[in-house]
Protein 1
Amino acid sequence: MSIGEFDLIARYFTRPAVARQTPGRVALGVGDDCALLQPSPGMQLAISTDMLVEGRHFLSTVDPVRLGHKALAVNLSDLAACGAKPMAFTLSLALPSVDEAWLEGFSRGMFALADEHGCELVGGDTTRGPLNISITVFGEVPPGAALLRSGAKAGDDLWVSGTLGDARLALEAFRGTLSLPAQAFVLARARMEAPSPRVALGQALRGVASAATDVSDGLLGDLSHILRASGVGARVDADAAVERIALRSMPASDIDLNIDIDMLRLCALSGGDDYELVFTAPVGAREAVERAGRDSQTAVARIGRIEAEPGVRIVDADGAALAQRFTSFDHFG
Ligand code: ADP
Ligand code: MG
């Protein structure tokens, strides 16, 4: 390595005290054997880890600024899904070599998102090896208030935040299975490479949502985790999900995507990489959910209903069952 391990940590992953936004909660950050965190009195810690592997989760050609953003975003999305407030994170990096331009971009993208959420880098590990990025996030949540996968009840509405399917459309465009107008591709690619973790919405849904998780592997796959944990089933309106595709409501609505409906349904229902929240709430909480969306400036939409009968029934806008099969992503599937 051209610069040493400790210079690298000092230059790219240690920030001057003035840039630190969380002095109250981070008693000791990067540089010692441990970091010391001070959760607010009485709060529970919420902890989650996500790893990004080159060739598996991202392409070697991806912009390092976006990669830094995404590596943290996918972790913050897990805190969002629990309704936790971000506090701090650690970063374990394996690098094939020291590429300072890459490190500068990566750390810039990562810290920009960290600052947006008041989440401080407090430690990590750095080693030589095939490019691999592992982040652990720490958040806090009032005891008993975390959103879990297990609380969905028959009769609850099924909701989703933000937009669905655009990341998958970008992936299909990269693969060459479809072509997107230039403007649409830019938007879809940004959704794939720079997702927005729904941190504010997650916290606003505490005490409102009955169950929640984030959409990383595809809506239906992630929903199935809620259904299994809650011992229920669901009816999902495929066309309401298709309505959530951002590309379909681009300002320049004269752009003709020219993508068939089966592909749109596939992208919305099992696309993956959306990093939205899928959650359930009692019918009586509709106004509270809408308010949580407004307060967090995040769109929320109903796309189905929880039912007692296990399994998922996918229907079109008229309520007719769809025959199309949808599978979600599984690293070992
Ligand atoms: P140790 O020998 O205890 O593993 P290291 O020499 O690996 O410690 O790390 C020195 C300090 O730098 C520690 O505080 C560690 O948390 C921090 N650190 C190492 N790598 C990173 C990184 N990629 N980002 C942030 N902090 C890091
Ligand atoms: Mg170490």
Protein 2
Amino acid sequence: MNRTPLVAGNWKMNGLPDSAAELHKMIGALKGGGHCDVLVCPPFPLIATFVHDSVDSGIGIGAQDCHFAEAGAHTGDVSAALLAAVGASAVILGHSERRADHGEGDALVKAKAEAALAAGLMPVICVGETEAQRDSGDAEATVLAQLDGSLPDSAGVVVAYEPVWAIGTGRVPENSDIAAMHHAIRQAVVGRYGDAGRAIRLLYGGSVKPGNAKEIFAIEDVDGGLIGGASLKADDFLAIVAAA
Ligand code: PEP
């Protein structure tokens, strides 16, 4: 099955209005599109400007979270409908930092994914084991349980496998471990959605850099990457996009 690779940048709580300069550099280099899909997910207040600046550039703009409700008394939260209305095309959900910092569990991630799909956004659902879970041999069971609880009822999602211990640490699993996990995730999404599961893009995330991206993206069932730190600098991000 041919899947268009996706390279998604998660800016986390980084960036100020003048960070648009990095986006403009990316837009200039990619010149309206290329061999893979590219997504940049800045903090909420930058989304509308980034959408405006990236029209016809081939770069999609996404968010890093949304609420599960359509609207209402949820101070500080942002609805999927508003994200879609200002032009976002995707939303990262269930990132390990949100699971850890905000106590987000699988059922909540699933509810957010359903809301995102209803609003026309592509959910990028993150799963991944901690170092302790890997050391105790529970990595696969952990990830499969997260998937089971977090995936929405329909298949229009992207899944990002991000071992928690590899995020921002410079440490990356062995290629064979990434391959085994992505194979297990592929089986799980095909089990869940049937043939539609074969079209789901599975991203690897965790310390992907220009120097290791090509090798990681060559692994079977790795359909691109979710990139944190290296997505903040256009040169690094573009090198990773080129590797996809
Ligand atoms: C992330 O947090 O999604 C991530 C992959 O971060 P980094 O690339 O910095 O490890």
Protein 3
Amino acid sequence: MKSNPKTFHVKSFGCQMNVYDGERMAELMAAQGLTATDDANAADLVVLNTCHIRERATEKVYSDIGRLRKHARQQGHDPMIAVAGCVAQAEGDEIVRRANVDVVVGPQAYHNLPELVAKAAKGEAALDTDMPLASKFGKLPGRRKVGPSAFLTVQEGCDKFCTYCVVPYTRGAEISRPFAAIVDEAKALVGAGAREITLLGQNVNAWNDAEDHGLHGLIRTLDRIEGLHRIRYTTSHPNDMTQGLIDAHGDVESLMPFLHLPVQAGNDRVLKAMNRAHSRDSYLRLIDRIRAVRPDIALSGDFIVGFPGETEAEFADTLSLVDALGYAQAFSFKYSPRPGTPAADMADQVEAEVMDDRLQRLQAALNRDQHAFNLASVGRTCDVLIERRGKLPGQMLGKSPWLQSVHLIGDHAIGDVVTVQLSAAGPNSLTGTQTLRAAA
Ligand code: 5AD
Ligand code: SF4
């Protein structure tokens, strides 16, 4: 039996939605009177907010639990360990069997974390992986102090069932949070210091409500919030890119010229086997339409190499699509069979060495394009939102509208928006030289 914890530490893995969920869990535990600590090894309660998207992410959880327990034993400390997030959802019972944890809580049930912690403190089993119809959001405390760039979950879950992906199983069906709740949370975030809000959803551009506002309607409303300078959204599916949303990229000033629009592969047979429900050509035409209204938009994406049955010629189609589009940045992964997904049972799983080789070639192309995009930005004048201090004296770090990291020297506060000229570019960041004004 463990006593009631007084301090806690939340460690989030994986996607931005997990980061958001981690913040909300931290707020929830703070509202219960617990104190946050940065030191996972010293906390009475450690929440591991896990990711199940690829195998390595899952294995990390088990090794983390092992490391925490070992370290704690050496210190004569016996922390309570809670596993949250998508591994908790997918492997709840197995975690309890395989690892020594006290609480297991799924992504749709974490509003119950305080109750589960109280149960565990009494030595009772504390596992909740329900996906209740009533949303957790209404049961969470309000937003407190946040940084200049904040996340706001507006949509969760996925009905697309791409054949490789666990998300429809771990996060459940697509649901959109109500319009008013989102606008209220956005205002609270701005009140708490946010200058930029990134709207989050597994299929964020599928967000909608009974009044058919669509994500673009929501963005146009948020655009009117005083003090909110920047709006972003992620992650999107090509088939939910409505004309309304494309138009918003053309005329909503606070909507940043950046779009994360995963394509996964460039070959139609592979896209079909992935159940992506779009073709190479429809994706290319979609990007043309978006670039027509916002020529400078920075395009980002996700790619999977080595999907079952992918041939060298099919992989070459991914490379040629990348060449044709010039991504400003992108994430690329080796296919990882996820238990329970259709692709895991497909014939012709691609050998590890072949996947390694393809990933290397794809990443070389993506890195080249990212560097090229950064170099092409040199000379541009743009606003930079200052997010933190840099390592050098007087150095500040912020983001350009195109989500590039920008270093600059100047006496600025975190949250300032500074107009700079981009004066030099590396593969991963740029240097800005202040030109005109510093506006709060
Ligand atoms: N294997 C490899 N990558 C995957 N992704 C999702 N599922 C898998 C998988 N089983 C990638 C996709 C998705 C991103 C979040 O993770 O590219 O867009
Ligand atoms: Fe997964 Fe596909 Fe849904 Fe994205 S759209 S979360 S890749 S099933």
Protein 4
Amino acid sequence: MTSTPDAAPVNCELRGNLLLVTVDNPPVNALGVEVRRGLVAAIEAAEAYAVAKAVLIVGAGRNFIAGADIREFGKPPQMPTLPDVCNRIEACSKPVIVAIHGAALGGGLEIALAAHYRLAVAGAKLGLPEVLLGLLPGAGGTQRAPRLIGAEAALSLMLSGKHIGAQDALKMGLVDRVGQSDDVLTEGLTYAQQLLSEHAPVRRTRDAQGLADTDAGAAAIAVARADTAKKSRGLLSPLKIVDCVNAALTLPFEDGLRFERARFIECLDSPQRAALVHAFQAERQVQKAPETRSAQPRPIASAGVVGGGTMGAGIAVALLDAGLPVTMIERDDASLARGRAHVDKVYDGLIAKGRLTHDAKAKKLARFAGSTSYDALAEADVVIEAVFEDMAVKQAVFAELDRVCKPGAVLATNTSYLDIDAIAAGIARPQDVIGLHFFSPAHVMKLLEVVVPARVSADVVATAFDLAKKLRKVPVRAGVCDGFIGNRMLAVYRAAADHLMEEGASPYQIDKAVRELGFPMGPYQVIDLAGGDIGWATRKRRASTRDPNARYVQIPDRLCERGWFGQKTSRGFYRYEAGQRAGTPDPEVEAIIDAERERAGITPRAFSDEQIVRRYMAAMINEGANVIHERIALRPLDVDVTLMNGFGFPAWRGGPMHYADTIGLPALLADIREFEKRDPLFWKPSPLLVELVERGETFASLNRAM
Ligand code: 3H9
């Protein structure tokens, strides 16, 4: 079905003895106030027309209904509310049938649950993903879903936020029928006529018996409660979902609805909801880089990867998973064999976890080829270089690519910090050179920094965004500078952590404070995981260009000099017992830190966790502001998406720039000015932060303005 631009958001049409109600609110038929009013009016009309014997609700365009309109959250409520709409549908005295195609999510599925009969066609995606937005299904979903499909299945849907297909929904009892074809209107009309001819009665989900076995319900709730307490650290809505299902089990329907409404409003008003909705919207905004509007992407049907190390292999897997044929180049047979082995290992890991079959692996690998000759890349549409991080090595690779690749091929580098303008300048086609900065493991991590050098043509940038979509990555447009967006910020906030450590906080306290903020790991756990030798090599390489007046904390070097590189050597900032990934604090490390403090002439002092977090976050945000100020990132939201998708920043805090707005920019600037008194070289307030404070504005105002 297609939608017309000025159509009313809900259209009613009599089709014989059936009232056909079409929700038509592009792009995703969200349940904004006009749609809610339209749906109530449609039900009233159905009640009023004697000729209408039943109601069929469908969605126009690509989806049934994607849920409540998230743009209305945080604004004054407008009547009718979505629970009112669902209740009105359920109360209708004539059978209400929904026919679902595309997304029936959140409030969209709640509309379906309130209807009396449900059909879905192949390709339908059903789910209650509110939890991912810091919410719970608040239009009766927590009360109706368990009654319809039982507490366990309902909890699983609501706590995971996952989408399920039509067949699974049928098995679960979420829908009554799966259409024979994907023509949702025809399927819906046929089903409705059949129900009418059978004199099918009005059948209300509130009366369904999914919770009749109260022992099974109570057991599912107990398991979910224990699991949620463990897994959903810091999150507000998951436990409330469990409470609501408990209410469904223990309270009459109307009371359960009231209970749900109160919990929903608590979630709606929480900063977590604001942060998670920001994260959702920001992830969509980053896809719309200026070049994606001004230029057409080049076609990408085949890819090459230069380098078969961990990064190259991960990138190859990401490309293979996107269905592309991939050619890997290595300098000799032994290196190529290692590259293949890396790719194999990734897939074997998935097979071991039951996420991939041997057959599927074989099919993917049938598209994988390796060569020691660059000539094998002659037909590739895109080549991604992932060789050793050294300018001369990279330039040599690009000279080869320039020699062998066909005109128009996109030539990408996966460098983490080298000057891509310099790489591009070395060859005859700088307009084709771009940065595609993947994060390790490259086939898993969602973030892809699309680094845009000065001379690249717009269609190459558009191609990079198009490729990111194929790879199911979240692309963020970044400018060229040392470390681009993410690693540049990381260098600064890690340095701030080192300063704290040298001044008296233990790495264990810093890690704990950062974890409590919501990060999965603290900075020293991350170093131990990645390998301390990586940062050490970079520090040594940069030693000659470092500002001799800048503060340099030597503690990490002292550990590396002992060969303590982290998990892989069983010692780093932590000690790791054989086979254990969790480390334990190491008194010898603490002694080394003490000695270093003494050598640096620092008398250690105590820090509270709050002081640690304030300083750590101030460093991160200040550098984020610099990155925006220098146009390395387009907007604050690009920084947020980068940190959330590549650096473990908790989505429920919305990224560092959103977080900065929540704590207030004047307070943040005051902190930075205070730190500046002790270390003016490190702590220079970002001009953008100063400007925003002077104007009384927020980072969010910049997201809106651009
Ligand atoms: C809820 O329902 C609460 C209720 O329980 C209780 C209430 C009382 N509202 O993702 P796309 C926009 S909470 C407004 O790129 P796709 C989106 O921002 C809601 N706008 O497309 C984008 O805008 P733009 C529970 C929305 O095809 C455009 O649509 N529902 C909404 O890749 C296209 O989006 C959810 O959490 C919305 N609800 O994927 C579902 N959804 O063009 C959230 C999307 O300006 N939505 N937009 O950038 C999705 O998961 C995906 O959008 C969907 C389509 C799968 C539907």
